[in-house]
Protein backbone atom coordinates (compact mmCIF):
# COMPACT_ATOMS: atom_id res chain seq x y z
CA UNK A 1 0.00 0.00 0.00
CA UNK A 2 1.47 3.32 -0.99
CA UNK A 3 0.65 6.70 0.44
CA UNK A 4 0.04 9.58 -1.90
CA UNK A 5 1.71 12.79 -0.94
CA UNK A 6 -0.82 15.55 -0.74
CA UNK A 7 -0.15 19.24 -0.81
CA UNK A 8 -0.59 20.91 2.54
CA UNK A 9 -3.92 22.67 2.88
CA UNK A 10 -3.76 26.41 2.40
CA UNK A 11 -5.50 28.11 5.31
CA UNK A 12 -8.28 30.55 4.45
CA UNK A 13 -7.60 34.26 4.71
CA UNK A 14 -10.18 36.62 6.19
CA UNK A 15 -11.61 38.84 3.43
CA UNK A 16 -11.35 41.85 5.75
CA UNK A 17 -7.60 41.25 6.10
CA UNK A 18 -7.29 41.21 2.30
CA UNK A 19 -9.43 44.34 1.96
CA UNK A 20 -7.33 46.16 4.55
CA UNK A 21 -4.16 45.16 2.69
CA UNK A 22 -5.56 46.33 -0.66
CA UNK A 23 -6.71 49.65 0.83
CA UNK A 24 -3.24 50.14 2.32
CA UNK A 25 -1.68 49.49 -1.10
CA UNK A 26 -3.97 52.10 -2.69
CA UNK A 27 -3.31 54.63 0.08
CA UNK A 28 0.46 54.21 -0.42
CA UNK A 29 0.05 55.16 -4.08
CA UNK A 30 -2.85 57.59 -3.74
CA UNK A 31 -2.32 60.72 -5.77
CA UNK A 32 -4.82 63.52 -5.30
CA UNK A 33 -4.15 65.78 -8.29
CA UNK A 34 -3.39 69.31 -7.02
CA UNK A 35 -5.82 70.86 -9.51
CA UNK A 36 -8.59 68.58 -8.21
CA UNK A 37 -7.68 69.33 -4.59
CA UNK A 38 -7.57 73.08 -5.22
CA UNK A 39 -10.95 72.96 -6.97
CA UNK A 40 -12.45 71.00 -4.06
CA UNK A 41 -13.25 67.92 -6.13
CA UNK A 42 -14.12 64.75 -4.25
CA UNK A 43 -15.13 61.37 -5.60
CA UNK A 44 -16.52 57.98 -4.73
CA UNK A 45 -15.63 54.99 -6.91
CA UNK A 46 -16.52 51.31 -7.07
CA UNK A 47 -13.44 49.11 -7.51
CA UNK A 48 -12.83 45.45 -8.17
CA UNK A 49 -9.60 43.73 -7.17
CA UNK A 50 -8.88 40.11 -8.06
CA UNK A 51 -6.19 38.17 -6.23
CA UNK A 52 -4.93 34.81 -7.49
CA UNK A 53 -4.08 31.76 -5.42
CA UNK A 54 -0.43 32.84 -5.49
CA UNK A 55 -1.44 35.92 -3.45
CA UNK A 56 -0.77 38.38 -6.26
CA UNK A 57 -3.18 40.96 -7.60
CA UNK A 58 -4.21 39.83 -11.08
CA UNK A 59 -6.76 42.52 -11.88
CA UNK A 60 -7.58 45.94 -10.45
CA UNK A 61 -10.21 48.09 -12.11
CA UNK A 62 -12.43 51.08 -11.53
CA UNK A 63 -15.96 49.91 -12.27
CA UNK A 64 -17.93 53.13 -11.86
CA UNK A 65 -18.05 56.19 -9.73
CA UNK A 66 -19.06 59.73 -9.05
CA UNK A 67 -16.41 62.37 -9.20
CA UNK A 68 -14.35 64.49 -11.51
CA UNK A 69 -12.69 62.62 -14.41
CA UNK A 70 -9.33 63.85 -13.11
CA UNK A 71 -9.85 61.76 -9.95
CA UNK A 72 -10.94 58.72 -11.93
CA UNK A 73 -7.83 58.92 -14.14
CA UNK A 74 -5.63 59.17 -11.07
CA UNK A 75 -7.31 56.12 -9.54
CA UNK A 76 -7.04 54.15 -12.81
CA UNK A 77 -3.28 54.76 -12.83
CA UNK A 78 -3.05 53.57 -9.23
CA UNK A 79 -5.06 50.44 -10.08
CA UNK A 80 -2.79 49.62 -13.02
CA UNK A 81 0.22 49.88 -10.71
CA UNK A 82 -1.24 47.33 -8.28
CA UNK A 83 -1.12 44.44 -10.75
CA UNK A 84 1.40 41.90 -9.51
CA UNK A 85 1.54 43.18 -5.92
CA UNK A 86 2.04 40.24 -3.60
CA UNK A 87 0.00 39.71 -0.44
CA UNK A 88 2.82 37.44 0.74
CA UNK A 89 0.62 34.44 1.34
CA UNK A 90 -1.01 31.87 -0.89
CA UNK A 91 -4.79 31.65 -0.95
CA UNK A 92 -6.97 28.53 -1.11
CA UNK A 93 -8.90 30.00 -4.05
CA UNK A 94 -8.86 33.18 -6.15
CA UNK A 95 -10.61 36.10 -4.47
CA UNK A 96 -12.68 38.94 -5.91
CA UNK A 97 -12.92 42.03 -3.73
CA UNK A 98 -15.47 44.62 -4.81
CA UNK A 99 -15.31 47.74 -2.66
CA UNK A 100 -15.69 51.48 -2.57
CA UNK A 101 -12.89 54.04 -2.50
CA UNK A 102 -13.19 57.76 -1.83
CA UNK A 103 -11.19 60.84 -2.61
CA UNK A 104 -12.18 63.09 0.25
CA UNK A 105 -10.74 66.43 1.27
CA UNK A 106 -10.00 66.70 4.97
Question: Gist?
Answer:
This protein is an alpha+beta fold and 106 residues long. Helix content is 33%, strand content 27%.
Report what the structure shows.
Helix content is 33%, strand content 27%. By secondary structure, it is of the alpha+beta class. It has a single domain (15-32, 42-103), classed as Fusion Protein Consisting Of Minor Coat Protein, Glycine Rich Linker, Tola, And A His Tag, Chain: A, Domain 2 (2-Layer Sandwich), CATH 3.30.1150. A hairpin with a 5-residue loop joins strand 1 (43-51) and strand 2. The radius of gyration is 17 Å and the shape is elongated.
Instruction: Please give the CATH architecture.
Output: 2-Layer Sandwich
Strand content: 25-35%
Task: Give the strand order of the largest sheet, numbering strands 1, 2, ... along the chain.
Answer: 2-1-3
Computed over alpha carbons, the radius of gyration is 17 Å
Shape: elongated
CATH topology (fold) name: Fusion Protein Consisting Of Minor Coat Protein, Glycine Rich Linker, Tola, And A His Tag, Chain: A, Domain 2
N-to-C span = 68 Å
Could you estimate the helical fraction of the residues in percent?
25-40%
Number of individual domains:
1
Look at the structure and give the CATH class.
Answer: Alpha Beta
